[in-house]
Amino acid sequence: MSDRNELFVDEEENLDSGMVSDDTGSFHEANEELLDDDPIVESISLVMNQVPHPSTQSLHLIQYVGKPKTTSLDDQNISGSIKEESNYLELNVPLDTSRFYDETRAEEWEAQVTENSLRGVFDKTSGGLYAAHFVISNGTKKMVLVPIDSTTQIRSSFKYLDEIDMKKNSSTVNWMEPTKQSKMHILQTSGKNAQSNTSDGSTSHALGDTLKHVKKFEEEDWSALRIVEPNHADSEQVRREIANNADDLILETETRMDEYLDTLINT
Prior knowledge:
12 strands, elongated, single chain, seven-stranded mixed beta sheet, alpha+beta, three-stranded mixed beta sheet
């Protein structure tokens, strides 16, 4: 049986010459050695810019949730509309009716479903979210950052199912007997606003605010969107202005690596 003292070492003894002690200087020296194994081979300038005409232009991030990986939107005749006050977007993407399309069911529904309606609500950002545009100009590389105004996730709305139900209900009412129609009444109800106290002591009228938003959305008209391809002249013009009009706003850092590491450790 080995001596019990062999299981322990003196406090001054270092088991591994590569271990880092609690001394801050030793910590930084060890990290510098690690960084030498993965050296920086090239530095690219970060440049801040904005859309060419902020009063009439804005940048938005649209995420297509559930989009099949093999599905491409290139060369698609996409149409779109928006309710600007409600921040509500709708895009109509043509369906490939040559695959997995049930024409018999479409005839039963008396509806020709040839488009996939995608809808989403824009959520305004509070800053800190940017789109990056990589540019090579005169042999110099730079990354242009442009603030994103809002983001949205678009999903299939299947609104054609609602339209089919509305059509069926309308047909049912029209074919009802007059005696049955006379027995129909409109029931009016009034609901009390659901009030809840917020953390700052104010009162939130959740139900009333929701009904106001719904009413505003239903009364607002749709505005058609003009959608252009990435290789369109207008798209290329915007990219050129973003790339070439941002040379005076190069981002520079005054924080050293050791200061950054100290911040990560102590926070």
